[in-house]
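Changelog entry: the alpha-1,6-mannosyl-glycoprotein 6-beta-N-acetylglucosaminyltransferase record was regenerated in this release. Current contents:
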Amino acid sequence: MITVNADGKIMVRRCLVTLRPFRIFVLGIGFFTLCFLMTSLGGQFSAKRLGDSPFTIRTEVMGTLESRGVLRRMSDMLEMLMKRMDILARLENSTDFHKGDETRFPLDRFQPAAGLMERIQAIAQNVSDIAIKVDQILRNSLLNGKVMEGRRDQCEVPRDPKYPDCAGKVEWMRARWTSDPCYAFFGVDGTECSFLIYLSEVEWFCPPLPWRNRTAAAPSPPPRPPVQAAFQSDLAHLLELIGTGKESLSFMKKRIRHLAQQWLRAARRLEQKLKGRQRDQKHILIHIGFLTEESGDVFSPRVLKGGPLGEMVQWADILAALFLLGHSLRVTVSLKELQSHLGVPPGRGNCPLTSPLPFDLIYTDYHGLQQMKQHMGLSFKKYRCRVRVIDTFGTEPAYNHEEYATLRGYRTNWGYWNLQPTQFMTMFPHTPDNSFMGFVSEELNQTEKQLIKSNKVSSMAVVYGKEASIWKLQGKEKFLAILNKYMEIHGTVYYETQRPPEVPAFVKNHGLLPQHEFQQLLRKAKLFIGFGFPYEGPAPLEAIANGCVFLQARFNPPHSSLNHEFFRGKPTSREVSSQHPYAEDFIGKPHVWTVDYNNSEEFEAAVKTIMRTQVDPYLPYEYTCEGMLERIHAYIQHQDFCTTSSPPLPPKTKSPAMQSPPSPLVLSPNATHLVWSPRASRDPQAWPPVGSLQVWVSETRHTCTETCRRHGLVCEPTFFRFLNKEEVFLQLSITCDSTEYEMNHLYPAVAENVHECYLQKEPLLFSCAGYNTKYRRLCPCRDFQQGQVALCRDCL
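Regenerated structure tokens:
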């Protein structure tokens, strides 16, 4: 008995000594159990997350038999521990260890052991319950996995007339799904079901699968609540957004800093003019594609070597205007940044974006447009209505419409985008089919203007152009010799070590000048003379703004894509009659003289007259900071290419019962053209306002652009939809023996010699450009603000 008691005491002591480590062991078992359950069950729930493959459940379920065995062994182990602790407790009850105060180890020392036994028993019971529940979950999952496996093997291409392209797209996926990693990113694994899931949930070529309702993609997040735009008063944040690392970016930042005070004053004036009108803040991405490494970025290395700066001047001004108007901007000059901002999935660009486009507007150029199309997949077609393309020379509708351009020979490397033509934004207002974006020139106050006039040197001329290649123009010696008789000629041709041999010795060449020094040179000079190239740059406007007279060559015949290499391949048929048509047409004498350089007498007479003529510095309002802010504000507020659509075309034939609504147009009092009837209703949301519309009939050799200009108006392509009706011919007393609907960028028009009338079948082809000697065209014209040709009188 004593021996037994001694052994019992030894066992109890050992048990007490090991209680603390045993607690740690039990906690470890519990932690291991929790981790195991999270691992085992996590896969079951993770397969239900958006974007995971529906077939991952099957893979995880197959390993669950081993999981159930581990849980059972853990439960058995805990039950065995509980039984052994129970034996120890019964053994101690048989000793005299519990008697009175004589015990060496008081009873309260065993209270933790008893509590620990209860905890172990509870844990064992919980693990047992969990094992049963996990077993049930895994059995259900295995059953669902078998069902899913059956569905996976049994998916068939649906025959739904609402989705006619589904079968063809599935066939394409079978053959090409491995051609781009983006398909695997969206869960495609080579099975029919994965093809259909992708084509119905990521793209939209196939109908949704009924059994996929519970795992369908979550709806798009609600649109952001509108935030009111507020005019900005500090350009420092914009300079940070532009970034560093390229000479072109440094040039743009210097320009913004130089014009900062003029921009801020203009913003305050426009804010007062708008009188607190509500303006929604837009989230805008500016992607300057021609500065990306992928496009070659030929401009940045040439910034300091006399290269063309017109595009960078315009982009700097666009950035300043958008920022000062209070919009939220993101600026990118790399393809990697573009992909990140857009949400492009990994791969080669064949799949849509991973999330809705976070930008209301995207300003880019042709290079950026191409990059977006390559990397946005089907999302490009969905979101292209938000794009605005900065396009120096313009894109006419005949070149923009892909099918028409291909069939009629108008296809070029830069056209065929099927955008609304007004989504293209030009440097000068030479193409009414496009929107006029423009740029700004530095404004002078009255004191500065008077100082310039008093310091002018009437016998000083500056040549337009910084590259030596400009001086290689054939025939220049003749008119330069005449000019040298009357004026001292200055040049700003770039060179590194020695004077360019192309520049004659009598020309005083200053080399490439910083902008402020070039401005000082212009403020002294009387004449700024062009050699015929470059076309339509900003320098002539800067010269005129600094009090110079601009002398340029008249082209006969006009330069175009048909006869001049520079314009070949550009998406325009425009005929350029001089080096700077805007200066010729919108400014003119006495500030601009356009003469035939091959006619020595005409050239010499022009030089003599210019020397005697006093001119004040002049800058058109549309090229001031306020003019550009006003114009961009109007575009952002009123141009919406995502929701606005042209009304349906009238049917070719009408039944006697069909009554056309009365025409909103009426004959003008002098019976020469049509105007909007005062009695006709007017949509208050229509822009430009329809009250500015006038309908004129062109001559056979005139475009609508020319026709409207001859009447002191501007062609407005958005009004073509009001002219594209048979009754308009009747109102203009035009006889139509037949009327046809066709795709032709010259329609609506009439062939008067045969009394055949034609209406436009494709609204994207409504165009102010183009003529044919066979047709007289119906032309929509509107009025415009003095000095702001982009806006009608009531457009702001």
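Residues 98 and 107 are 6 Å apart (CA to CA).
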